[in-house]
Amino acid sequence: MRAMPSSARSTDWFEALLARVMTLAQPADVAAADFFREHPQIGARDRHALSDRLFAHLRSLPLPDWLAQSLQSLLGPEYDAFWQAMQHSAPLDLRVNTFKAKRAAVRQQLQSHGLDVADTPYSPWGLRLAGKPSLRELPAYRDGLIEVQDEGSQLLVLLVEPRRHDLVVDFCAGAGGKTLALGAWMRNQGRLYAFDTSAHRLDALKPRLARSGLTEVQTMALAHERDERLQRLAGKIDRVLVDAPCSGLGTLRRSPDLKLRQTPQGVEALAAAQTRILTEAARLVKPGGRLVYATCSLLPQENEQVADAFGQAHRDFVPLDAAQPLQRAGVADAATLCHTGHLRLWPHRHQTDGFFAAIWQRRP
Ligand SMILES: C[S@@+](CC[C@H](N)C(=O)[O-])C[C@H]1O[C@@H](n2cnc3c(N)ncnc32)[C@H](O)[C@@H]1O
């Protein structure tokens, strides 16, 4: 039998991969990884080419009507610029672990390895790399001087503004992207609790903590947001961050299939969960302490509406203007990152993932 020409073979592979992804049974990156594991005959170069083609295809698919209409009514004439931004992959941003090193020194070290790297425009800890170089073999990575973290995620941490000896809770810590940034800021003093209902995600934080040099972080897998072990911390915590589970639509450049996987009903269920989690996490805040609610969603249903309803129901929590902690941290043009007192980051405006955050102080 004659061998199939490679272009024909790769078309077949692409069709098979796309069919698998479009079942929407799994996120596209997970489905692609499974597909490549099941087809070891596909070499590394073909895998990269197929992935690039898959993600370009998913990015080009229109947003479902309910979502396009929501975003059009939010953005008006800016919607086209947003859509164009969604056609490109996100930049690769790093956060410098300032517990161990200064940003300028790390930038120079990465440049000495031939990487094209520049400071991020807003975050004081951020570096932006050109292309997608592999990082794991770099001494800066192995020594815990850098972590991959979108600049928007770094800006959100600036709103927490922990002081060194504070008690701080990262209520939805996941694999700890924000916990690590908080710990570095606190210079490993005070106490930082990383909670999540997923023990599996918290496990992924452990090797990152070991690289970072941070030792004052205590992880706890919660049964749910009303876990009774939280009671002993009620009213005692200086800073509580709720980086809530959300639709993730602010990360559409990385996960373009999310637009197909989310539904209005799903968003409604998420908003209900966000309200429950925020309400329970707020109990931990001590009088005079600060609460930060954040998502990587673009939708008002998960953002302003959740924050406003919380504020209405909790008059002892006084809203704070998000631009102020950003200004104190030296962020340029901080007011342009905020809207009606909230952090509101957009990929097409700020070249970050989409993020929202609201802040309150509990009355002293
Ligand atoms: C947006 S992710 C957190 C990302 C993380 N903060 C980071 O920076 O890498 C939301 C997290 O909320 C967790 N979660 C879901 N329901 C929760 C609940 N009821 N209480 C606490 N965490 C919850 C999820 O397991 C998930 O890890």
What does this protein structure show overall?
The protein has helices at 6-21, 28-38, 44-60, 65-75, 79-85, 103-112, 139-142, 151-158, 177-185, 199-212, 258-261, 264-282, 304-313, 323-328, 347-350; strands spanning 92-96, 117-119, 126-129, 146-148, 167-170, 191-196, 217-221, 237-243, 285-295, 317-320, 338-339, 342-345, 355-362. With 364 residues, the protein is α/β, with parallel strands linked by helices. The strands form 2 sheets. Strands 5, 6, 7, 8, 9, 10, 11, 12 and 13 form a 9-stranded mixed beta sheet that branches. A hairpin with a 2-residue loop joins strand 11 (338-339) and strand 12. The longest helix has 19 residues, at 264-282. The protein is globular, with a radius of gyration of 21 Å. 40% of the residues are buried. The structure holds S-adenosylmethionine. Belongs to the class I-like SAM-binding methyltransferase superfamily. RsmB/NOP family. InterPro entries: MeTrfase_RsmB-F_NOP2_cat, MeTrfase_RsmB-F_NOP2_dom, RCMT, RsmB-like_ferredoxin, SAM-dependent_MTases_sf.
Which keywords apply here?
single chain; 364 residues; Alpha-Beta Plaits; 18% strand; binds S-adenosylmethionine; RNA methyltransferase activity; RNA-binding
Number of strands: 13
- Tell me the name of the CATH class of the largest domain: Alpha Beta
The CATH homologous superfamily name of the largest domain equals Vaccinia Virus protein VP39
Helix content: 40-55%
Topology:
Blueprint: H1 6-21, H2 28-38, H3 44-60, H4 65-75, H5 79-85, E1 92-96, H6 103-112, E2 117-119, E3 126-129, H7 139-142, E4 146-148, H8 151-158, E5 167-170, H9 177-185, E6 191-196, H10 199-212, E7 217-221, E8 237-243, H11 258-261, H12 264-282, E9 285-295, H13 304-313, E10 317-320, H14 323-328, E11 338-339, E12 342-345, H15 347-350, E13 355-362
Parallel strand pairs: 5-6, 5-8, 6-7, 8-9
Antiparallel strand pairs: 1-3, 1-4, 2-3, 9-13, 10-13, 11-12, 12-13
The protein binds S-adenosylmethionine.
The site of S-adenosylmethionine has 19 residues, from α9 and β6.
